[in-house]
Each structure stands twice: as C-alpha cells, then as structure tokens.
Amino acid sequence: ALVALAADSKHVPVIVCAETYKISNRGVALESLTTNELYNGNLLYDLTPADLVSGIVTELGLIPPTSVAVLLREMNP
C-alpha cells in the first residue's frame, strides 16, 4: 500500500500481479495498519486501496480495480 501511495503521488500507474484468492473486499484506512495481518510483529500482507491501483494481473487476465466487486461475487456466491 505504501508503494502504491508513493506512486500515486507521482502519477505513476500501479499494476498488481496476484492470484484471485488474494483479492479481498475488506477496506483499510491509509493511516492505519490495524486491519493488515501481523504475525510476531511482521507484516504478512497489506491491503492496498483500489483507487491506488491501475490494474490487476491475475490467472484470469488483466482486470480493472472496478471489476473486483464482480469478481468477489463470482468467487463467493
């Protein structure tokens, strides 16, 4: 999320590469890491707000962040 925030401040597009199972519908505030997963004080993963991402490359191909809601509905009927 911090890299995407820095890129956004410089108007640099961010393309994310991830398997679809890593896409989450949980929201997160940029000022807080409280909803990110910590284990023994180490960050396991962080949640990047969709408005900071230009596109997501998955095993399904390139999808826009605006299609994440549709993808989540299809994955979790």
Structural class: alpha+beta
Q: What pattern of helices and strands is seen along the backbone?
A: HEEEEEH
Number of strands: 5
Largest sheet: 3 strands, mixed
Alpha carbon gap, first and last residue = 28 Å
Name the overall outline.
Answer: globular
| Average pLDDT, all residues | 78
Unreliable stretches (pLDDT < 50, length at least 5) are 27-34
Percent helix among the residues?
10-25%
Number of DSSP helices? 2
Q: If you compute it from the alpha carbons, what radius of gyration comes out, rounded to the nearest whole angstrom?
A: 13 Å
Major beta sheet, strand line-up: 1-4-5
Query: Which percent range describes the beta-strand content?
Result: 15-25%
Name the features:
single chain; 77 residues; alpha+beta; three-stranded mixed beta sheet; two-stranded antiparallel sheet; 2 helices; 5 strands; globular
